[in-house]
Amino acid sequence: MMRTRPLKVALLGCGVVGSEVARIMTTHADDLAARIGAPVELAGVAVRRPSKVREGIDPALVTTDATALVKRGDIDVVVEVIGGIEPARTLITTAFEYGASVVSANKALLAQDGAALHAAAEEHGEDLYYEAAVAGAIPLIRPLRESLAGDKINRVMGIVNGTTNFILDKMDSTGAGYQEALDEATALGYAEADPTADVEGFDAAAKAAILAGIAFHTRVRLDDVYREGMTEVTAADFASAKEMGCTIKLLAICERAADGGSVTARVHPAMIPLTHPLASVRGAYNAVFVESDAAGQLMFYGPGAGGAPTASAVLGDLVAVCRNRLSGATGPGESAYAALPVSPMGDVVTRYHISLDVADKPGVLAQVATVFAEHGVSIDTVRQQGKDGEASLVVVTHRASDASLSGTVEALRKLDTVRGVASIMRVEGE
Amino acid sequence: MMRTRPLKVALLGCGVVGSEVARIMTTHADDLAARIGAPVELAGVAVRRPSKVREGIDPALVTTDATALVKRGDIDVVVEVIGGIEPARTLITTAFEYGASVVSANKALLAQDGAALHAAAEEHGEDLYYEAAVAGAIPLIRPLRESLAGDKINRVMGIVNGTTNFILDKMDSTGAGYQEALDEATALGYAEADPTADVEGFDAAAKAAILAGIAFHTRVRLDDVYREGMTEVTAADFASAKEMGCTIKLLAICERAADGGSVTARVHPAMIPLTHPLASVRGAYNAVFVESDAAGQLMFYGPGAGGAPTASAVLGDLVAVCRNRLSGATGPGESAYAALPVSPMGDVVTRYHISLDVADKPGVLAQVATVFAEHGVSIDTVRQQGKDGEASLVVVTHRASDASLSGTVEALRKLDTVRGVASIMRVEGE
Questions:
Q1: What CATH class is the domain A141-303?
Q2: Do the domains at B7-136+307-327 and B345-427 have one common CATH topology?
Q3: Which of A140, A147, A325, A337 to mutate: most B Cβ within 10 Å?
Q4: Per residue, what are the HEC states of chain A?
Q5: Mean per-residue pLDDT for B155-174?
Q6: Do the annotations mark residue B12 as ligand-binding?
Q7: Which CATH number fits domain A345-427: 1.10.443.10, 1.10.10.10, 3.30.1330.10, 3.30.70.260?
Q8: Which of B133, B145, B283, B426 is deepest in the core (most CB within 10 A)?
């Protein structure tokens, strides 16, 4: 059964992930060959700094000319682990034109240009696989796209950014503030020097766009994803969460509306009950909770980043693409037939936890409650605490639309007796 | 892109799972057609009791002659949800001979005859898929076989039987004894009238054989799996587990030996730390923990049984098989190239929790400790409690081979001062 002519792989990028891909391709060459049905050969490695010593990689394979490597014409699969939009996008489309399939770990690019890249792959009869783009080693794209292909997915809710989960877990377990926890994450290498992409939710939003698109068979662009970072989460928020039997996580949530006619995708910090499986996801781990009509509730858990875990996902895709190539078939392409409208954040329905600083005098609660009622937001619980002539009022609502809640908060800010809105946090997973 | 001639599906069995498969094929026909690229049509349903009213199924499709249905010659995919060895085995091989691919949920058959069935499928160029055979709705076969195809799996440890997890969870949370918890499981429909297959670990052992085979690219037969049921787990065992910060689960464990040269597969009750993700798997849920070289630790969680969840897995396979059929390819078949030897239980290395009833007199601990030392089993902790002239001695060992532990226990039983061995339980997940 074994074909002797090897399949040729071009590796674009040889950083943390790329070097692991190269290492495993070498050390596990026999296993990969047995599982694919033909040997795979590393035919070239495109890098920015050719002088850097790369253990285990033949220097003759290293080039700075990624374009020439992709255009060689004898490449079967291009593995793109450069990241970012350009030159990755052009290299991938060039790969398709020159007869190669592509395995990518590039969430930003897939979230922004997934539809165009899928179209290019299909035009040239090539595969585009990207399991590593979402939640690192956790098999998620394939289960959603294939295992649940006969089911109707209603909700995907997950912790898809390890950096922010590390920070929030640290704040939760030690009572540290955001800056202190971020500093520790940076010192330990969990956060980059510029943590913006993580802490402001850009990274998670890209993953949410990809997951929503696959789950709902609908194109969801990065711009469709509501995004709120977690830099304003405070130790006081965690204290409030604890009082409610909750913790705080940065969640990516993709939902089908109750009537099934539209979908939403969003990233923001939220309180979730300690009894929810996502609450116990610690450190830099990722986990994604999926709810579907027939399967019910599923959860996928594992390391969401790191060189070796991401390489595991890349290599799983590489094996699949190579098998497809040998059998002359391609795997499932983009599935966007449902083409559901993506609703704005205002249409999202969930619960809210609102902390207000108010004057400590009679009638304030009545005033505040009236504002909620006028906006159609039903209150579940209220807790009032006095402190030095001021008081804090914590309101937890029943389910209401984000638009109604925003209107409520705007009106609350105009009340003389409301000194300030200390925090607003959504409550999920109940 | 859409082909108009439908793919024809023969459904063998229309019980809890089969009726859900038929229902979803009808209610989600448009989605399935869009995802496959062609409509799928229920061409026939083989049942034992044709007179039973089956809502939503055209009575004209119902037949008692499963063989004739499979031999029709125009069937594309046979969905086998009868269970048991015969007639399922003959019907599946007949399906291949008559040009159909097969989706099966039959763990017993796959564990016993997987190799022969795969060979038959390959001989006729057909697919054999069986995601639903292990852990119901949880995508597990496909992630192991495809997502982790570029990685080296070292361990698969899971709760793969919902009935026993319900019973053990009940014992843990209420302090109930085995019989009381079993009675409740039966009353609630979680346990069958004859619970033997579940409580004696036969069901879990079949799943362990399937998982080990896929994880290690090695044929593992049902007979290769060490099996110990959970009928002898007592409330006292749970009390001991709690003192150690553990709970008790019936685990299926498939392991690669430390030297990589052999594998083991086993099912037995075991103590696991409360901090382990498997410890918090409640009720009838299933979860499987996977450890691999590159990906690290992954966990897959969800409903392990039930009509709709199992149907979700069956339909995911059905979509994949139909796609393969349209593209003229077949999916991954059996991968047993590694052909590693399966070692007996004696070679398994783990930790043990042993409760002994001993005479309450000086020198007993020294005697017992000597026996452990003579068999090369190192003791981690000992706890001695006196009660009315008798004493109980609880020993927790370091890692030792099962053979060494068995030898130790045999020798302990021969000591005059040891009145009895109250319980032996393995300790996992540390």
A1: alpha beta
A2: no
A3: A147
A4: CCCCCCEEEEEECCCHHHHHHHHHHHHCHHHHHHHHCCCEEEEEEECCCCCCCCCCCCHHHEECCHHHHHCCCCCCEEEECCCCCCCHHHHHHHHHHCCCEEEECCHHHHHHHHHHHHHHHHHCCCCEECHHHCCCCCCCHHHHHHHCCCCCEEEEEEECCHHHHHHHHHHHHHCCCHHHHHHHHHHCCCCCCCCHHHHCCHHHHHHHHHHHHHHHCCCCCHHHCEECCCCCCCHHHHHHHHHCCEEEEEEEEEEECCCCCCEEEEEEEEEEECCCHHHHCCCCEEEEEEEECCCEEEEEEEECCCHHHHHHHHHHHHHHHHHHHHHCCCCCCCCCCCCCCECCHHHCEEEEEEEEEEECCCCHHHHHHHHHHHCCCCEEEEEEEEECCEEEEEEEECCEEHHHHHHHHHHHHHCCCEEEEEEEEEECCC
A5: 97
A6: yes
A7: 3.30.70.260
A8: B133
User: Are the C-beta atoms of A71 and A78 separated by less than 8 Å?
Assistant: no
Protein fold of B151-303: Dihydrodipicolinate Reductase; domain 2 (3.30.360)
Q: Is B414 a catalytic residue?
A: no
Q: Distance between CA atoms of A33 and B386, rounded to whole angstroms?
A: 61
Q: For residue A16, which of B26, B170, B294 has the smallest C-alpha distance?
A: B294
Domain residue spans in chain A?
A: 7-136+307-327, 141-303, 345-427
Q: How far apart are the C-alpha atoms of A31 and A13, rounded to whole Å? A: 24
Contact B316 A24 (CB under 8 A): no
Q: Which among A149, A302, A308 has CB closest to B299? A: A302
Q: Which residues of chain A have pLDDT under 70?
A: 1-2
Of the CATH numbers 3.10.350.10, 3.40.50.720, 3.90.105.20, 3.90.1640.10, which one belongs to the domain with range A7-136+307-327?
3.40.50.720
- How far is residue B191 from each of residues B22, B253, B306, measured CA to CA in Å? 25, 23, 12
Question: In this predicted model, what pLDDT tens digit does every residue of A208-246 receive, in sequence order?
Answer: 999 999 999 999 999 999 999 999 999 999 999 999 999
What is the C-alpha to C-alpha distance for residues A406 and A409, in angstroms, rounded to an integer?
A: 5
What pLDDT, on a 0 to 100 scale, did the predictor assign at position B268? 98
Check the annotation: does B343 bind a ligand.
no
Inter-chain contact B150–A314, Cβ cutoff 8 Å?
Answer: yes
- At A2-35, the pLDDT tens digits run 677 899 999 999 999 999 999 999 999 999 999 9
On the question of a cis peptide bond just before residue B87, with omega within 30 degrees of 0, the verdict is yes
Residues B57 and B14: beta-carbon distance below 8 Å: yes
pLDDT tens digit string along B17-54?
A: 999 999 999 999 999 999 999 999 999 999 998 888 78
Question: Which residues of chain A have a CB within 8 Å of the CB of B20?
Answer: 294
Closest CA to A281 of A302, A260, A298, A267: A302
Task: Tell me: pLDDT of B385 over 90.
Answer: no
Secondary structure of residue B358 in the 3-state scheme: strand
